[in-house]
Every structure is written in structure tokens, then in C-alpha cells.
Amino acid sequence: MAYETLRLALLAILRNSLRSFLTILGIVIGVAAVIAMVTIGSGSAKQVTNDVSTLGSSLLMVRPGKLERGPGRGGGASAPSFDLRDVEAITRQIKGLEAVAPVAQGSANIVSGSQNYSTTVFGVDDGYFIARDLKIAEGRSFLESETHLGSSVCVLGETVRSKLFGRGDPLGATIRLKQVSCKVIGLLVPKGASGFGSDQDDVVLMPLRAFQRRLAGNRDVGAMYITVGDSVTTAKAKADLEALLRERRRIGPNDEDNFSVSDMKEIASMLTGISNVLTGLLSALAAVSLLVGGIGIMNIMLVSVTERTREIGIRLAIGASAGQVLMQFLVEAVVLSLLGGMIGVVIGLLLALVGTWFLSVPFTIDPATIALAFVFSALVGVAFGFFPARRAANLDPIEALRHQ
Fold first, then answer.
1. pLDDT tens-digit readout, 182-241
2. DSSP assignment letter at 381
3. Residue 115 in 3-state DSSP?
4. What global pTM score does this model have?
5. Is 101 helix (H, G, I), strand (E, B) or coil?
6. CA 284 – CA 316 distance, rounded (Å)
């Protein structure tokens, strides 16, 4: 009986194939949009997590100025910078830290022979390579003596190397940063573009003291990257850092911090949450198409009942029960919805594949989302197909036979 009901439903759908396709178009669009949005959203969330993890899951970023979010909010540019005494105090007084890396940065025009290029120059020490998980592809990093004395040596990112030297070997070459000559001693392993849009290879690293003395002309430390060891949680290290810096910067008990300590785990969680909320909103908007598709199915099934009134009367007259007639039309509605769901899933995955490629985020298929799309498609068929099916089942056989 079930097989026969399904066969009759398919025959009825194929008999009006064009009308059936137009009927399920709303379901196709709705399911495709939801699948595409959820898949792209999942890829974006994964990309955010990967980008933050490249900075280190146990990394704390300390910056001067109160970190504020929202339109028109500033970052506290008037707050005093850190200096190397702050770095020494943190290293000495806070236990369980793997690396404390002071950083100063600025932009500079770099010249090598006839080539010149504008990029960002970072003044760092060896702790920066640990905190940012930077690897040396060729050459070496800074010696302790070079860091302590502020020698004019530098390490180039891949983008800077290609702009200045093309395919040539820059090791041992001398470049000029503004008016400062600097010997290239190493090349960084390429990291590519981050999900935040910045080129992580468009950098030049030099010893912090050399940067402060020869380029910046001051002793300011613009930020600190702090890697927490396994024996201490980032929450505990963050609390200790805040207490120490409040004491060193003479901040009163009732005064706000004039610095910020950011935990990469918290930032990753926040960004992932934002991505998930946006994905949910877009998916909800796309799901409206499913409602429109369901209304289309109800409409076409009502038309089908009207067109097949005489057929329904004959079936009822020769012994078919009202339940069998109801089931036949209900199965037709469900089959229409499931066909729309299958086509929508395929189109949605194709759209997601193109979208993730265009946005440069991972393409991750969520089987649960696909299964939910099928289930939802079937529910749409049941919900919007029940009324027309019930109407067909309740027809009076004599009146139905008289219908022309």
C-alpha cells in the first residue's frame, strides 16, 4: 500500500513537471540559502579560531589605554606608554610566564639598491619569536648581544623580501630604514594573510633598543605579548598583570585602568560568538523562503484537488477510504518538499563552496545541518499539505462524480 501511494504521488508530480518545479522553487531557494549561510558561517568561525590560534592560545596582549568597543570609541591614545622597566618588573614578579615580549612599531620606507618599499617595522627581542610563534626560514634570529646592544640587524617577512629582492638572496645584504643602515640576518617562514585582512609577512623585525634609539627616538614600548606557561591559567596571569600594572602606574582603587590586557581565548570566543549570531540571523532570514515555499505547496495542492475532484470521487465510490485519499495527497506534498530539499542542499553546498573560496575560509560540511534541512522540508510538506489533503478526503463521492 505504501509503495502504491508513493508511486501514485510521483506520477501525479511528473504529470505536471513544470508546475511541480515552480511549486518547489521556494523550498529550493530556502534550503539552499540556509545551507550556504550555515556552511559559510561555520567556515568563518573556524577561520577566526585558526587566526587567533596563530597568535597563541595562551597569549596575553598588553597595551596602553583602555580598550573600548563601539562607534566613536577610542583606544586611550593619551595613556602613557610602557617602558623596559615594566617588562623587567613583569618578568621578575609574575611567575609562570613563558615569554614577555616588548614591542614598538612604526612605518618606514625601506630602500635596497634601486628598490624601495613602505612597510611596518617592529622593534622586538627574542621573546617575540616565542610569543608569536615565528619561525626562521633562512638565516637566524637576534643574538643576545645584538638585542642588548641594539645592533642594526633585521629579519624580513616574505612580502618585504619579494618586494625588495625578488627571487634574490637577501641574507647579508644591507638595507636602509629611513636613514639607518641595517644588515639582513634572517627571513621569516611565511604565514600568509590573516582572517582580519592583514598581511602577516609584510614586516621587518629589528632589535627593540635599535628601533627605539635610531628610528623612534624614544624608549616607549607600545605593547607587550606575554605567553603563559602550562602551570598557570591565562585568567590568573591576567589578574596578576592587572594588579602589578595598576601598582606601577599608580592607579587609585576607584580609578579605571589606563591599559588593557586581552586574553586571546576570550577574543576568540567573542569573535566566534559574533560570527555565530550573524550566521543565525542570516539563516533565519533565508528560512523565510521555506515559509513562502510551503504556501506555494498548499496553493498548488488545492488546485490539484480541484482539478482531480472527479478522480477522487471515483476512488471513493469504488471503495477507497477517506484516510487513503488523505494519505495520497499528503504524500504528494511531502515528496514535493523533499525533492525541493534535495535540490536545495546540492545548490546550497555549491554556493557555499564558491563563497568559501571567494572569502578564503575553510569549507566545512555540517551533516547535522543537512539532515535538519531534510527534516524541515518534510515538516513543511506535512504542515502545508495537510489542509488540501483533508479537503480531498472530505469530498462527498456523489458531488465529486458530478464535477466536470
1. 999 999 998 876 655 677 889 999 999 999 998 888 889 999 998 888 888 888 888 999
2. H
3. strand
4. 0.61
5. strand
6. 42
Measure the CA–CA gap between 339 and 341, rounded to whole angstroms: 5
**Those residues with Cβ within 8 angstroms of residue 159's Cβ, 6 or more apart along the chain or in another chain:** 119, 199, 201, 202, 203
Give the distance from CA 109 to its chain's centroid: 33
Contact 241, 129 (CB under 8 A): no
Please give the helix or strand (H or E) that residue 45 lies within, else none.
helix 17-55
* Axis-axis angle for helices 17-55, 2-15 (nearest 10): 100
362 vs 357: CA distance, rounded Å: 8
Q: Distance (Å, rounded) from C-alpha 112 to C-alpha 176?
A: 7
Q: Which three cell numbers, joined as nine digits, stand for 360? A: 578564503
Q: How does DSSP assign 193-209, residue by residue? A: B-TTS-BTTSEEEEEHH
Short-list 104, 126, 125, 95, CA closest to 244: 95
Q: How far apart are CA 203 and CA 121, in angstroms?
A: 6
Q: Which three cell numbers stand for residue 256?
A: 579605571
Q: State residue 261 phi and psi, 5-degree precision.
A: -120, 115
Instruction: State the Cα angle at 257 between 254 and 258, rounded to 5°.
Output: 130
Q: Which of these, 2, 9, 5, lies nearest to 297 by C-alpha position?
A: 9
Reduced to 3 states, what is the DSSP secondary structure of residue 184? strand
Alpha helices in 61-157 (DSSP H): 84-93, 126-131, 144-149
Tens digits of per-residue pLDDT, 268-285? 666 667 767 776 776 676
Domain ranges of the chain: 2-50+269-402, 80-257
Alpha helices in 264-365 (DSSP H): 264-307, 309-317, 322-359
